[in-house]
Amino acid sequence: MAHSAPDEPQVVQPHDEPQVVLPHEEPLPPRIDLWIAVVFFVLGAAIVAVALQMPTYREQQGEIYNAPGLVPTVHGTVVILLSLWLGLRSIGRGALRPGGAKGPAKREGFSNARLAMAAGLCLVFTGVLIGSVPFGVAAALFVTSFIILFEWQRDQTLAANLRRLAIAAVIGVATGIAVVLVFERLFLVRLP
Question: pTM of the entire structure?
Fold first, then answer.
Protein backbone atom coordinates (compact mmCIF):
# COMPACT_ATOMS: atom_id res chain seq x y z
CA MET A 1 0.00 0.00 0.00
CA ALA A 2 1.53 3.30 -1.06
CA HIS A 3 1.76 6.06 1.52
CA SER A 4 1.56 9.71 0.56
CA ALA A 5 4.08 12.23 1.75
CA PRO A 6 2.94 14.32 4.75
CA ASP A 7 2.70 17.51 2.67
CA GLU A 8 0.56 15.92 -0.10
CA PRO A 9 -3.22 16.23 0.21
CA GLN A 10 -5.10 12.99 0.75
CA VAL A 11 -7.04 11.85 -2.29
CA VAL A 12 -10.52 10.59 -1.52
CA GLN A 13 -11.33 7.51 -3.54
CA PRO A 14 -14.68 7.59 -5.34
CA HIS A 15 -17.41 5.26 -4.15
CA ASP A 16 -17.07 1.77 -5.63
CA GLU A 17 -20.60 1.83 -7.07
CA PRO A 18 -20.79 3.27 -10.60
CA GLN A 19 -22.68 6.52 -11.10
CA VAL A 20 -26.29 5.60 -11.97
CA VAL A 21 -27.87 9.05 -11.98
CA LEU A 22 -27.07 12.35 -13.57
CA PRO A 23 -24.27 14.30 -11.86
CA HIS A 24 -26.70 16.80 -10.32
CA GLU A 25 -29.02 14.11 -8.90
CA GLU A 26 -28.87 11.78 -5.91
CA PRO A 27 -29.97 8.12 -5.97
CA LEU A 28 -33.12 7.10 -4.16
CA PRO A 29 -32.76 5.20 -0.89
CA PRO A 30 -32.41 1.45 -1.51
CA ARG A 31 -35.67 0.55 0.22
CA ILE A 32 -37.67 2.94 -1.99
CA ASP A 33 -36.05 1.35 -5.05
CA LEU A 34 -37.11 -2.05 -3.70
CA TRP A 35 -40.74 -0.94 -3.31
CA ILE A 36 -40.72 0.56 -6.80
CA ALA A 37 -39.36 -2.75 -8.11
CA VAL A 38 -42.21 -4.64 -6.40
CA VAL A 39 -44.85 -2.31 -7.88
CA PHE A 40 -43.41 -2.62 -11.39
CA PHE A 41 -43.06 -6.39 -11.06
CA VAL A 42 -46.78 -6.64 -10.25
CA LEU A 43 -47.61 -4.25 -13.12
CA GLY A 44 -45.48 -6.27 -15.57
CA ALA A 45 -47.06 -9.55 -14.43
CA ALA A 46 -50.55 -8.05 -14.86
CA ILE A 47 -49.67 -6.87 -18.38
CA VAL A 48 -48.41 -10.33 -19.33
CA ALA A 49 -51.45 -12.04 -17.76
CA VAL A 50 -53.91 -9.85 -19.71
CA ALA A 51 -51.87 -10.12 -22.92
CA LEU A 52 -51.89 -13.91 -22.74
CA GLN A 53 -55.71 -13.84 -22.67
CA MET A 54 -55.83 -11.99 -25.99
CA PRO A 55 -56.57 -13.91 -29.20
CA THR A 56 -53.66 -15.85 -30.60
CA TYR A 57 -52.42 -15.64 -34.16
CA ARG A 58 -53.90 -19.09 -34.87
CA GLU A 59 -57.33 -17.91 -33.78
CA GLN A 60 -57.00 -14.94 -36.12
CA GLN A 61 -55.58 -17.06 -38.94
CA GLY A 62 -52.56 -14.85 -39.33
CA GLU A 63 -48.86 -14.69 -38.73
CA ILE A 64 -47.39 -14.80 -35.23
CA TYR A 65 -46.23 -11.18 -35.37
CA ASN A 66 -49.85 -10.08 -36.03
CA ALA A 67 -51.11 -11.45 -32.70
CA PRO A 68 -52.59 -8.60 -30.65
CA GLY A 69 -51.02 -9.87 -27.43
CA LEU A 70 -47.48 -10.08 -28.77
CA VAL A 71 -46.33 -6.50 -28.12
CA PRO A 72 -47.94 -6.22 -24.66
CA THR A 73 -46.38 -9.57 -23.70
CA VAL A 74 -42.93 -8.35 -24.76
CA HIS A 75 -43.42 -5.04 -22.93
CA GLY A 76 -44.68 -6.78 -19.78
CA THR A 77 -41.75 -9.18 -19.86
CA VAL A 78 -39.30 -6.29 -20.19
CA VAL A 79 -40.97 -4.52 -17.24
CA ILE A 80 -40.68 -7.72 -15.16
CA LEU A 81 -37.00 -8.18 -16.04
CA LEU A 82 -36.15 -4.54 -15.30
CA SER A 83 -38.05 -4.65 -12.00
CA LEU A 84 -36.10 -7.78 -11.00
CA TRP A 85 -32.86 -6.01 -11.88
CA LEU A 86 -33.88 -2.94 -9.84
CA GLY A 87 -34.93 -5.14 -6.91
CA LEU A 88 -31.68 -7.11 -6.89
CA ARG A 89 -29.65 -3.91 -7.18
CA SER A 90 -31.52 -2.31 -4.29
CA ILE A 91 -30.97 -5.39 -2.13
CA GLY A 92 -27.28 -5.23 -3.01
CA ARG A 93 -27.29 -1.57 -1.93
CA GLY A 94 -28.75 -2.53 1.47
CA ALA A 95 -32.54 -2.29 1.11
CA LEU A 96 -33.09 -5.17 3.54
CA ARG A 97 -30.53 -4.00 6.09
CA PRO A 98 -31.35 -1.64 8.94
CA GLY A 99 -31.07 1.91 7.65
CA GLY A 100 -31.96 0.91 4.09
CA ALA A 101 -34.72 3.51 4.04
CA LYS A 102 -32.34 6.38 4.63
CA GLY A 103 -31.59 8.55 1.69
CA PRO A 104 -29.85 11.79 0.99
CA ALA A 105 -31.22 14.84 2.76
CA LYS A 106 -31.11 16.95 -0.40
CA ARG A 107 -33.03 15.77 -3.44
CA GLU A 108 -31.87 17.58 -6.56
CA GLY A 109 -33.33 16.82 -9.95
CA PHE A 110 -36.62 15.48 -8.64
CA SER A 111 -39.56 17.82 -8.31
CA ASN A 112 -43.23 18.21 -8.97
CA ALA A 113 -42.34 20.81 -11.60
CA ARG A 114 -40.38 18.19 -13.58
CA LEU A 115 -43.29 15.77 -13.27
CA ALA A 116 -45.69 18.46 -14.48
CA MET A 117 -43.41 19.25 -17.45
CA ALA A 118 -43.28 15.57 -18.44
CA ALA A 119 -47.06 15.22 -18.11
CA GLY A 120 -47.55 18.43 -20.11
CA LEU A 121 -45.33 17.15 -22.92
CA CYS A 122 -47.27 13.89 -23.01
CA LEU A 123 -50.57 15.79 -23.20
CA VAL A 124 -49.27 17.97 -26.04
CA PHE A 125 -48.08 14.84 -27.86
CA THR A 126 -51.37 12.97 -27.52
CA GLY A 127 -53.81 15.87 -27.63
CA VAL A 128 -52.19 18.25 -30.13
CA LEU A 129 -49.48 16.61 -32.23
CA ILE A 130 -51.11 13.25 -32.99
CA GLY A 131 -53.60 13.87 -35.75
CA SER A 132 -52.25 17.34 -36.56
CA VAL A 133 -48.95 16.24 -38.08
CA PRO A 134 -47.72 12.87 -39.40
CA PHE A 135 -46.98 10.45 -36.57
CA GLY A 136 -43.25 10.28 -37.32
CA VAL A 137 -42.97 14.06 -37.09
CA ALA A 138 -44.99 14.06 -33.85
CA ALA A 139 -42.73 11.39 -32.34
CA ALA A 140 -39.59 13.26 -33.44
CA LEU A 141 -40.85 16.54 -31.96
CA PHE A 142 -41.87 14.84 -28.70
CA VAL A 143 -38.56 13.03 -28.19
CA THR A 144 -36.49 16.07 -29.15
CA SER A 145 -38.49 18.35 -26.84
CA PHE A 146 -38.29 15.89 -23.98
CA ILE A 147 -34.51 15.55 -24.24
CA ILE A 148 -33.99 19.30 -24.54
CA LEU A 149 -36.28 20.08 -21.62
CA PHE A 150 -34.65 17.62 -19.24
CA GLU A 151 -31.03 17.78 -20.39
CA TRP A 152 -30.60 21.55 -20.79
CA GLN A 153 -28.36 22.90 -18.04
CA ARG A 154 -28.25 26.64 -17.37
CA ASP A 155 -24.77 26.50 -15.88
CA GLN A 156 -23.24 25.03 -19.06
CA THR A 157 -21.71 27.03 -21.88
CA LEU A 158 -23.77 27.88 -24.93
CA ALA A 159 -21.59 25.54 -27.03
CA ALA A 160 -22.28 22.62 -24.67
CA ASN A 161 -26.02 23.27 -24.72
CA LEU A 162 -26.05 23.65 -28.51
CA ARG A 163 -24.30 20.28 -28.71
CA ARG A 164 -27.05 18.82 -26.51
CA LEU A 165 -29.63 20.43 -28.80
CA ALA A 166 -28.04 18.83 -31.88
CA ILE A 167 -27.86 15.42 -30.21
CA ALA A 168 -31.50 15.72 -29.12
CA ALA A 169 -32.55 16.56 -32.69
CA VAL A 170 -30.65 13.58 -34.11
CA ILE A 171 -32.14 11.21 -31.53
CA GLY A 172 -35.62 12.65 -32.11
CA VAL A 173 -35.48 12.33 -35.89
CA ALA A 174 -34.03 8.79 -35.64
CA THR A 175 -36.79 7.82 -33.21
CA GLY A 176 -39.51 9.26 -35.47
CA ILE A 177 -38.19 7.32 -38.46
CA ALA A 178 -37.71 4.11 -36.46
CA VAL A 179 -41.22 4.23 -34.97
CA VAL A 180 -42.83 4.67 -38.37
CA LEU A 181 -40.77 1.91 -39.97
CA VAL A 182 -41.32 -0.57 -37.15
CA PHE A 183 -45.07 -0.04 -36.89
CA GLU A 184 -45.89 0.29 -40.58
CA ARG A 185 -43.44 -2.23 -42.05
CA LEU A 186 -43.02 -4.80 -39.26
CA PHE A 187 -46.34 -4.71 -37.39
CA LEU A 188 -48.38 -3.54 -40.41
CA VAL A 189 -50.14 -0.87 -38.33
CA ARG A 190 -51.28 2.32 -40.02
CA LEU A 191 -50.22 5.34 -38.01
CA PRO A 192 -52.26 8.54 -37.88
Answer: 0.51
